[in-house]
Amino acid sequence: MERLSGMDATFLYLETPAGHMHVAMVGIYDISTMVDGYSFEKFRTHIESRLQAVPPFRRRLVEVPFQFHHPVWIEDPDFDLDNHVRRITAPAPGGRRELGQVAAEIASVPLDRSRPLWEAWVIEGLKQDRVGFVVKVHHAAIDGASGAEIMTALYDLSPDAEPIEAVDTPPDRVPNEFELLSYATFSKLRRARDVVPLISRTIRSVTHLVSNIIDPAMKHGGVPLSAPRTPFNQSIGPHRSVAFARISLPETKAVKTALDVKINDVVLEVCSGTLRRYLLEHDALPDEPLLAVCPVSVRVEEEMGTQGNMVSAMFASLATNVDSAEERLEIIRQSTEGAKEDHNAIGARTLTDWAEWAAPRTFGLAARLYSSMHLANQHRPIHNLVISNVPGPPFPLYLAGAELVAAYPMGPIMDGAGLNITVLSYRDHIDIGFLADADLVPDIWEVAAQVAPAFEELKQVAGLNDPTITKAAAPVTQTSQAPSVESN
Questions:
Q1: CATH code, domain with 486
Q2: d(CA 259, CA 254)
Q3: Which residue numbers are catalytic?
Q4: Could you tell me the pTM of the whole model?
């Protein structure tokens, strides 16, 4: 039995019927590398053999009576793999759009809290000897860093790796109400010892931050509640839309070097150019710059390999009100540097420490009330969207012998911010997953279509492209033929 941290539990409390707090990854696999050919059973057996290496796949929640404290994890005594590994066939012709359609349907359904909080869907019927694989895990169980570590546990480094024999993990006995309340009481008493140092540390942090803000020589990041409204900054519904894009990692590094910025700045500018182009096409570009929230891992070296959430967040301007890509990149660079200074002034662990004090009943009720009353439509957006950048492996990975050729991550959306962009580097490319509210962004493939011209424009700024290349994106229509699942 292990209690959820306050940050982990917060993702449970934030979940509403419209706002699902799971993360996902859409993988595309070349099944021609599988020894003796493809079968769904091979995928299932492979996952079964790795369960002991992925704790979130075996644990389920147990609520504390009266929501007296955060829930606990136990090894599920009723675990059944068939509840978690499933298969489905993509509609014809089996391209990226059809894969995105299936992924959107999977992302639109919340996870069953009576079971371990994950699902894996094998998606057959794709073009060119490909199979899709969607893994969906609740954010209460993982963050970006621990999710990347799960990839390491699930995958092999060669298509002919020796199979691992499945190991039975002894299940936990479901604790009774007295045990849960006793454990919760002792946890609260231990936590109470930390409240005075936490308050003292927070006061010092706020004082430091305020002094930085009033110092004209200091750089600063974005400010919450300063975001302009866009078509996707509304209350959300339960249905999702999904799209994918890809850019070259070596070219991204070349841009970084040529312009003397960080890779994250390049990624944010590509997202900025993408959103600016999309909003201009819809005559919806605000005069003020969009504001992004960028999750930041606060996991230290000795915590590598642990599960759960150890994250904080930075607010950064995307400078979408500026026409020049070069000027946008410079503003983004200064904003991210300032956001890091603000983040350091507050303290990396402040958010996670205060999350321990989230009251389950109050927090959950507030989230549901905010969602049901559509209060996100009544005030200025806190931020416009979340953009998360997760480093992945530079070498090929294999699942049951099938080569992973693309990995598109998807993060959750929330009321008032109905679009999420999550980025994962893999081998020699950067895969970009777009997830949105299906009603607020029904044409999400039009958003994804702007990535290529936005990146081309930035490469031209860096002197890496022929300046005669057009900057305009080809129009994307819902009736156009779906591209190949491996074309990017």
A1: 3.30.559.30
A2: 9
A3: 139
A4: 0.88
